[in-house]
Write a structure and sequence with these properties.
9-stranded mixed β-sheet; Dihydrodipicolinate Reductase, domain 2; about 375 residues; binds nicotinamide-adenine-dinucleotide; alpha/beta; single chain; Rossmann fold
Length: about 375
């Protein structure tokens, strides 16, 4: 029998408990060695709930634990880069929540550091692990959709429509008076990754970004703040392969989580995945063919869902259990890597290009960092 993979999780609060930790608890190939949080009660509660053997409150102590081969960074965004570097220096494989860094250059450098040590990395691109999205990727790869013409990526839900719902993950030191890219970072980075995963590299983008809700509660501040949070972006995309893309992200478009829609139109067929929880069902997938243009629902086999899950499983757990199982299996079985730190850096590079296109009111060519 293959040895189990020793895992340690850094940060055990909202998202870790909802998405990451159920994945480790469910994977038979995982030994959940330890959890670590600077708030001891959070780490202790998570250890109890998900069966971790050890509890740490200092990440350095956890990274020095020889039983741990892979580290999961699920802490606030500003800490991702430094913690990932430390985990790499300690010789651990790393899963890090997105974004890895605020600047794409920093994300590329971190990707190179892991590559140089032969370590595996994965960015928490949750929606790559939607069975419907993976099926569209397979249909593009096996030619079912033919030559790809158009790719539409939408990510919109009304999580931040209510100004009293606190804004999180505002970069430290951000100037509240200047437009702060938020929905394009928080949501758009996922969407950009999905569009790039199915459509290949982007060659240019044009974009417009806005602040629609000018005053909001912000985590760590008292009362409503005047903050120029970018809560909506629309972008046009040219792909190196010749396809066209349209992308929209929104924090305020009325609708349910996670509000992702991916539409791919090719010469032989078209596919639409909607990752919008409705009546307890996490997602739908439809396919049309050039000779039968009515979109038909597609039912995927049970084998595409992690054992014990189905379309009624809440989406954070459904997708993250799948993400965790892919990463653990990649490491244990030596499978080809996917959704790596380099993919995270590429997505970040495109997000930066979209921000630049808006700021300078022009098309921006990609890559921004050809030697990265
Ligand atoms: N991929 C996705 O779909 C998705 C969804 C939600 C959140 N996220 C990301 O996940 C990350 C975590 O989000 P969250 O909502 O759980 O944040 P959170 O602030 O609720 O929880 C983070 C936890 O990390 C702990 N922490 C901070 N610094 C630490 C350190 N040095 N060592 C150990 N613990 C430390 C905090 O005490 C806290 O308990 C964020 O970057 C967020 O953007 C990703």
């Amino acid at each position: 029998m293959t040895a189990k993979l020793g895992v340690g999780v850094l940060g055990t609060f909202a998202w870790a408990n909802k998405a990451h930790l159920p994945g480790y608890a469910a994977h038979p190939g995982v030994d959940l060695v330890a959890v670590c949080d600077v708030v001891p009660e959070r780490a202790e509660a998570a250890a109890k709930q998900f069966g971790a053997r050890k509890v740490y409150t200092d990440h350095r102590a956890m990274l020095a634990d020889p039983e741990i081969a892979m580290v999961d960074v699920c802490t606030p965004t500003d800490t991702h880069l430094a913690l990932s570097y430390e985990a790499i220096a300690a010789g651990k494989h790393v899963l890090c929540e997105k974004p890895l860094a605020h600047r794409a250059e920093d994300a590329f450098a971190c990707a190179r550091a892991a590559e140089a040590k032969g370590l595996r990395t994965k960015i928490g691109f949750t929606f790559r692990y939607s069975p419907a999205i993976r099926q569209i990727k397979a249909w593009v790869a096996d030619g079912t959709l033919g030559q790809i013409f158009h790719i539409h990526g939408l990510e919109q839900n009304s999580q931040f429509l209510d100004p009293t719902f606190p804004l999180r993950q505002v970069p430290a030191g951000a100037d509240f008076a200047k437009l702060i890219p938020m929905s394009i970072v928080g949501y758009g980075s996922h969407l950009v990754d999905l569009m790039r995963w199915v459509g290949g590299d982007f060659s240019a983008v044009a974009a417009t970004m806005s602040n629609f809700v000018p005053e909001r509660m912000v985590r760590g501040y008292d009362g409503l703040q005047r903050i120029a949070c970018e809560d909506g972006t629309a972008a046009l995309v040219e792909f190196t392969g010749g396809a066209h893309g349209m992308l929209q992200t929104s924090y305020i478009a009325v609708g349910n989580y996670p509000g992702i829609e991916l539409r791919v139109y090719g010469s032989k067929g078209a596919a639409v995945a909607r990752l919008v929880t409705e009546r307890g069902i996490a997602e739908t997938l439809h396919l049309a063919r050039a000779d039968a243009v009515e979109f038909e629902p597609v039912v995927l086999p049970a084998s595409v869902y992690p054992p014990g899950t189905d379309l009624t499983t809440p989406w954070p757990e459904l997708y993250y259990r799948n993400l965790v199982r892919y990463f653990v299996d990649e490491i244990i079985e030596g499978r080809p890597p996917e959704s790596t730190f380099r993919d995270g850096a590429k997505s970040q590079e495109i997000v930066n290009a979209i921000s630049l296109a808006h700021a300078e009111r022009r098309w921006v060519s990609l890559p921004l960092y050809p030697d990265a």
